[in-house]
Each structure stands twice: as C-alpha cells, then as structure tokens.
Specification:
mainly alpha; 6 helices; globular
Length: about 130
C-alpha cells in the first residue's frame, strides 16, 4: 500500500474535504496509537502501512498509562485544532476502521488485545462481553 492510497481510503471513509486535513488526522491518530501498542504489535502494524504512516506509528514513546477509549479520543481532540469530542471520535474511527481493514482480522485482534476494553467500536467492530 502506498501513502496516497491510505490517504484516499481515510479521506473517503471520513468524508474529508482535503488531503491535507486527512493527512493531519492520520498522523495524529497513528502517533497517539503508537505509544499504546506493545513493540511486537506496533512493528507488525507498521509493516502493513506505507513508510510515512509506519514511521508515525513506530517512533512514539510508550504511554505512561493506558487510556480508556474515551480518554484516547479526548487526547486526539486536544491535538487537532478546532476538534471536539464528537469530531475527534469521527476522526479516530475513520483512521482506525481503515487500519483494521489494512491489518486484517488477526492483527486487529492483536491490536485490541494490547488496548483496554472499549476500543473495538473505534475500529468498526462490535465489542463482545464475556459471559461470566
């Protein structure tokens, strides 16, 4: 996959008006995600992405504490100028749902296993509760 193809997919899913806006959203979301993945999973995901996106994901310091999905969305909102919780949720979901399709089911499950419960919907998946 090439960078322009990734940008095109996210732009279409997110219904963004410009490539510049789309690229900014991709960079912010992937940089936020990168710090929350284990090294092995992060490298596997980076291997599926074009070089520009892979570098954005790969070169993040590990997060100091896990974020809930809502906290993750808020962290993205703070990094995107003019963003609200609602628009940041749209942005995150636009990028992560494309990422899930690029990575496939097995790798997406590994990503979700690295994250606290509650992220599945951001990847366009149902979150199944365990029957206790």
């Amino acid at each position: 996959m090439q960078w322009n193809e990734l940008v095109g997919r996210v732009r279409e899913d997110g219904r963004y008006t410009t490539d510049a806006e789309t690229k900014q959203v991709i960079r912010v979301v992937l940089s936020a995600l990168g710090g929350h993945l284990s090294n092995g999973v992060r490298e596997r995901v980076a291997g599926r992405l074009p070089a520009t996106a892979a570098e954005t994901l790969r070169y993040q310091l590990p997060a100091t504490k896990p974020l809930t999905a809502a906290e993750f969305v808020e962290a993205v909102a703070r990094r995107l100028e003019g963003s609200t919780s609602a628009t940041a949720r749209w942005d995150v979901s636009s990028v992560l749902s494309v990422l899930a399709r690029v990575c496939g089911d097995e790798l997406t499950e590994a990503i979700l296993a690295d994250l606290p419960a509650g992220y599945a919907l951001l990847f366009g998946r149902a979150e199944l509760a365990s029957a206790a």
